[in-house]
Design a protein that fits this description.
single chain, mainly alpha, two-stranded antiparallel sheet
Length: 490
């Protein structure tokens, strides 16, 4: 979107409106909306302190949670935890945030999970100034922080400030930096290539200089700013890098950089990243806890059902413009007693009632999914039209699936050896690390392809990830131009 606006020479879109009220959209049933609003407000007020404490920590608490479960990306997704990670976690930012000024997305938000801080800027055009700015969210802390070996909360806060100032995405920037730092440390590129920048893990000053160069369109920043999809080819062509290895470690799919979760032990989340229309982000799927921690998705069919339901449910939030956090970050106290606690059924019912109260139309949970399915399938067809919609485009870098290097395997030897013994019936004591890594890879890649088969079948697509004409007709979107795109691949 930023590229489109830039090419149209649009710097910003500003909307100024006075007299905003809670009923400015002229809802049909304001009484129901008020009742549900009071209910949700009370739930957040009473339960947030007992659950995630989003009003205090925001999403910074995820750093601690991910680190505890070996899910926090460290050094370009090689590892899942680090002893210094709490330095950029909730306790550090509780001290730094100005909690008297919560930053809600909408005036009056009960949750107001974003927070601000005063920052004395150390680099770049604002050097020496103190600014009041948004605090970093989890994705930024993991991407620009642990993924690059940086554990200073102020350093990551400054990276976040400048990404906002320059209009650079923190997730893409954190992935780009992590990839470049690993390539630098492995000798794939050197200081001559980087224009003198010492891009080793943990070098925050070099990270920031790279960002400033990207923003100015100068030096090695011009190279880095192309993103991982193009960087891989450039490093192969210019520096004779091993193409297969770069494809394994560059965390991108469909040209988009990964959001910041280690997925090696969650096949469902691997599928969530790989099959997502928009590329590997968790907006469509966040199944890692259901799959890896709670073991709620034991079979391929269970995983496929989750990869059908949750992308559609989550897409619906974007369709109607609602925040997801009151859905599952604050849950009813008795939610764990329901048949499907991962769906938070009481909150799903709330959304159905809200939709009916605003629009006056008949509505149900099934129609919610149907609305999303029409949109989601059209997005898929658009991907096909743009050359990114087939099965091959749903493949993900192997680092998202399993250990690429000897160092990665050895960091979790006990876990991987146990899997070789129990699942593949191999004796790891008689194998080299290279042999063990190869055997594990063959198994995990096969599992991923089997999952794709199950997901496509559940979605009503072909084995090449193409929606069938019957599916388009069922959804009422078999328009001539849509059918024309799909027919090329059937």
């Amino acid at each position: 979107i930023g590229t489109v606006l830039r090419n149209k020479k649009i710097k910003a879109i500003v909307v100024k409106k006075s007299g905003i009220r809670g009923d400015s959209n002229n809802p049909v049933d304001q009484d129901t909306i008020s009742r549900l609003g009071i209910k949700l407000h009370k739930e957040i007020h009473d339960l947030d302190d007992k659950q995630c404490r989003m009003r205090v920590h925001g999403t910074t608490q995820l750093v601690d949670a991910m680190n505890a479960h070996d899910l926090l990306p460290v050094n370009n997704f090689q590892y899942g935890e680090h002893p210094k990670a709490p330095n950029i976690g909730k306790a550090s930012f509780e001290k730094i945030f100005d909690l008297g000024k919560p930053d809600g997305c909408w005036y009056g938000c009960t949750l107001a999970c974003a927070h601000c801080l005063y920052l004395e800027v150390k680099t770049g055009p604002y050097k020496g100034q103190t600014v009041f700015t948004d605090g970093p969210e989890y994705e930024t802390l993991a991407g620009c922080g642990s993924n690059c070996g940086i554990y200073d909360p102020w350093a990551v806060a400054e990276a976040n400030f400048y990404c906002d100032t320059y209009g650079i995405d923190t997730i893409s920037f954190g992935n780009i930096c992590g990839f470049i730092m690993e390539c630098f440390e492995r000798g794939i590129i050197d200081k001559e290539a980087t224009g003198g920048l010492d891009l080793t893990f943990g070098n925050w000053e070099a990270q920031m200089e790279l960002m400033h160069q990207m923003a100015r369109g100068e030096g090695f920043g011009v190279v880095a700013g192309q993103g991982l999809y193009r960087l891989k080819k450039l490093f192969v062509d210019k520096y004779d890098a091993d193409e297969d290895f770069l494809n394994d470690i560059a965390m991108e799919t469909k040209g988009l950089e990964f959001s910041l979760y280690i997925t090696k032990e969650s096949l469902a989340q691997q599928g969530g990243y790989g099959t997502a229309n928009k590329g590997p982000q968790h907006d469509e799927n966040w199944l890692i806890f259901m799959d890896m921690i709670r073991n709620q998705l034991p079979t391929f069919e269970d995983k496929a059902e989750a990869l059908h339901y949750f992308p559609l449910f989550r897409t619906w939030f974007s369709i109607v413009g609602l925040c997801k956090l009151p859905w599952n970050d604050i849950m009813p106290a008795d939610n764990h007693l329901t048949d499907e606690p991962a769906k938070v059924p009481e909150h799903v019912d709330n959304y159905v009632e809200l939709y009916k109260a605003v629009t006056g139309r008949e509505f149900s949970k099934d129609e919610m999914l149907n609305q999303s399915n029409r949109v989601y399938t059209l997005q898929k067809v658009f991907n096909l039209k743009m050359g990114k919609g087939l099965r091959e485009h749903d493949n993900i870098p192997y680092r998202a699936v399993g250990p690429v290097t000897v160092e990665e395997y050895e960091s979790r030897t006990e876990r991987y050896d146990k899997q070789l013994k129990e699942i593949l019936k191999l004796n790891p004591e008689k194998m080299t690390v290279e042999e063990k890594t190869k055997a594990l890879r063959e198994y995990r890649e096969e599992q991923y392809q089997t999952l794709l088969d199950a997901v496509y079948k559940r979605r009503g697509w072909t084995s090449n990830a193409v929606p069938t004409i019957e599916k388009l007709e069922e959804l009422g979107i078999s328009y001539p131009d849509v059918v024309e795109v799909v027919e090329q691949y059937l």
